[in-house]
Design brief:
The protein is an alpha+beta fold. It folds into 3 domains: 54 residues, no CATH class; 40 residues; 89 residues, Hypothetical protein rpa1041 (Alpha-Beta Plaits, 2-Layer Sandwich).
C-alpha cells in the first residue's frame, strides 16, 4: 500500500482511495502502461495505480525520483560509460596536440614568406603563430627545419644569431642592453 501526503488519497492494492474530495498535486503511475500522470484537484486514483506526492524538496528530490525509475536505472550505466569515454577522448586529444616552436624569430616579412613556402614544400607543417606572428614548426622537427632553411639560404636579409652582434657596439650602450642583445642572439642560435 502506498500513501500520499497530506490532503492526498491513499490507494490500496484494489485501487480504492480513502479520503474522497482530497485536493493537491499527485503523480499517478499506471503500472499496466508504464505512464505517469500528474493530477491536481480531486486526486482519485484509478484501479492499478498508486499516488506519489510531488514534494517541495526541490531539485534534489525530483532528481531522486527520476533516478528511481526502472528505465533510468537501466540506462544510467550506459550514460556514465559514454560520459567517461567522451572525457577521456577529449583529454587524449588535448594531450596529443603537437606543440609548435618558432623557427627563426625576428625574420623580415619577405624572409618569413620564403621560409614558410620552403617549409610547406618540405612537408614540415609550418604555422604562423596568431599572437606573435612568428613562423613555427612542430617541436620534434625544429632542428630539421632550421637545417632545411639554412640549406635553402634563408634568411637572406639581416643577420641571425651571434652574427647580429657584429657592428652593433657603441660607447653609449649600457651593460644591460648588451646582455639583452647577447641573450637574444643566443636564443636565435
Amino acid at each position: 500500500m502506498t500513501t500520499g501526503g497530506a490532503n492526498l488519497p491513499a490507494t490500496t492494492a484494489g485501487g480504492a482511495s480513502t479520503p474522497s474530495g482530497a485536493t493537491g498535486v499527485a503523480l499517478a503511475n499506471n503500472s499496466a502502461t508504464g505512464t505517469a500522470l500528474a493530477t491536481q484537484g480531486n486526486a482519485s486514483a484509478a484501479p492499478g495505480t498508486s499516488l506519489i506526492r510531488l514534494g517541495s524538496g526541490g531539485l534534489g528530490a525530483s532528481a531522486r525520483e527520476v533516478l528511481q525509475q526502472p528505465a533510468v536505472r537501466r540506462a544510467l550505466p550506459g550514460i556514465i560509460v559514454l560520459f567517461v569515454l567522451i572525457v577521456f577522448g577529449l583529454v587524449y586529444a588535448w594531450m596529443q596536440a603537437t606543440p609548435h616552436r618558432p623557427v627563426l624569430p625576428g625574420l623580415s616579412d619577405a624572409d618569413q614568406q620564403a621560409a614558410f613556402e620552403a617549409l610547406k614544400t618540405g612537408a614540415y607543417e609550418p604555422k604562423i603563430d596568431q599572437t606573435s606572428g612568428q613562423l613555427t614548426v612542430p617541436s620534434d622537427r625544429y632542428h630539421e627545419a632550421r637545417m632545411f632553411l639554412a640549406s635553402q639560404g634563408l634568411p637572406r636579409s639581416g643577420s641571425v644569431g651571434l652574427e647580429g652582434l657584429n657592428g652593433q657596439s657603441s660607447m653609449t650602450t649600457s651593460q644591460f642592453m648588451e646582455q639583452v642583445k647577447v641573450n637574444a642572439a643566443m636564443e636565435q642560435e
